[in-house]
Known about the structure:
Layout: E1 14-15, E2 21-22, H1 26-32, H2 47-65, H3 80-90, H4 95-100, H5 106-116, H6 124-138
Helix pairs in contact: 3-5, 3-6, 5-6
Amino acid sequence: xxxxxxxxxxxxxxxxxxxxxxxxxxxxxxxxxxxxxxxxxxxxxxxxxxxxxxxxxxxxxxxxxxxxxxxxxxxxxxxxxxxxxxxxxxxxxxxxxxxxxxxxxxxxxxxxxxxxxxxxxxxxxxxxxxxxxxxxxxxx
Length: 140
C-alpha cells in the first residue's frame, strides 16, 4: 500500500474535557476501507512499555490488521505465575485432593488452596475468570 505524505500512518485517540472522542485519521481510514488497529495506552505506561509491547506483539498486531476488522484485544497479565498455578490446580486430575476437602465446588477449593499457597485476594470468581481466560488463550 502506498500512501502520500499527506496521509498519516498514525492516529491518536483522546477524550476532550466533555468526554467526546477525538480521532486522528480513523474516519478517513474507515472511509477508504484501510485495515488498522487501535492501541490503548494506560496513563501509567511509559514510552518504553508501549514500544516493548509493540515489539513483542508486532506479528499478532499485523495478523489482526489482516483479519478484516475483527476486533480482538491483546492483553498482558500481571499475575502470570498465579494464573498458571490456578489453571494447573484446576486441571489437576487428582480428585483425591478435591474430595478430601469438605466443599464440593472446585472454584472454592482452588481459591482456598491458592490463598494457602500465598496468593492474596484469590476468590472463586477470580478462579473462574482465570480458568476461562487460560482456556481461551491455550486454544489452537
